[in-house]
Amino acid sequence: MSGGKDGKSGGGRGGLHVRVKTARKRTASSTRWLQRQLNDPYVRQAQAEGYRSRAAYKLIEIDEKFGLLKKARAVVDLGITPGGWSQVVRKTNPRARVAGIDLLACEPIEGVAILEMDFMDDAAPDALIEALGSAPDLVLSDMAANTVGHPQTDHLRTIGLAETAADFAVQTLQPGGAFVAKVFAGGADRELLTILKRNFTTVKHAKPPASRKGSPELYVIAQGFKGRSGGADDAG
After folding, report:
1. Residue 177 to residue 179: CA distance in whole angstroms
2. Annotated binding site for S-adenosyl-L-methionine
3. Secondary structure (3-state) at 47
4. What pLDDT is stored for residue 193 in this prediction?
5. How do the domains of the chain map onto residue ranges?
6. CA dist 123 → 81, 101, 118, 232 (Å)
7. What pTM was estimated for this model as a whole?
8. Phi-psi sector, 192: left (phi>0), alpha (psi -120 to 50), beta
């Protein structure tokens, strides 16, 4: 999962451009990746401000536009590792309870219950709610399927995760709650949009500035959950 606030851009994004020489045991592609990391202002800012990944600034920028975090009291973070989004939630709203889940291990975060398990496991939804202690009022998903290099396949796999996350949100959110999920270029597909528009007051797409220009990712933001009586039972 992996910019900055307008008022915090001064020290984190400056500096000289760093060139990386191709080492004997380093491939050209890994050299390009390393050079991009070393010259990425969001990477430098994350290091300076103590965030575990540049992805933190994507959520910061989404929150600046949609105002999700300060009013949240119970938050689920799907695909939590390495923890940048939960760090942002806790820093923005220390009173919020947070539960996160990921197949990969995540270092502990104060105030966050972390489950190391597959979100697709049938036991995962109940385990998350138990760890959180209540129904959530905000569900965040920065999950993305491992890419195979085929754009259509990668898009479909990530949309599948987003649909599963949306189903979880519809089944568990408190009325008035919100949902954020990563989708790829083209945005949420028709079926996912239908589910979200049926169950939420507003549904919008956003590409935060921290999202790399060459990346196909977008985020779908659904706010104002209508509650199970508002159409969730027949959401599909």
Report:
1. 7
2. 83, 85, 102, 118, 142
3. helix
4. 93
5. 12-49, 56-234
6. 19, 12, 9, 21
7. 0.79
8. alpha
Q: Does domain 56-234 correspond to CATH entry 3.40.50.150?
A: yes
Query: Binding site: which residues?
Result: 83, 85, 102, 118, 142
Q: Cite the active site residues.
A: 182
Alpha carbons 219 and 18: distance in angstroms, whole number: 31
| Residue-wise pLDDT tens digits, 196-226 | 999 999 999 999 999 877 778 899 999 999 9
Residue 71 scores a pLDDT above 90: yes
Looking at this protein, which amino acid is placed at residue 86? Answer: S
**Cis peptide bond N-terminal to 82, omega within 30:** yes
Q: For 83-124, what is the HEC assignment?
A: CHHHHHHHHHCCCCEEEEEECCCCCCCCCEEEEECCCCCCCH
Mean pLDDT along residues 135-143: 96
Look at residue 185 and tell me whether its pLDDT is greater than 90: no
CB 144 within 8 A of CB 161: yes
pLDDT surpasses 80 at 118? yes
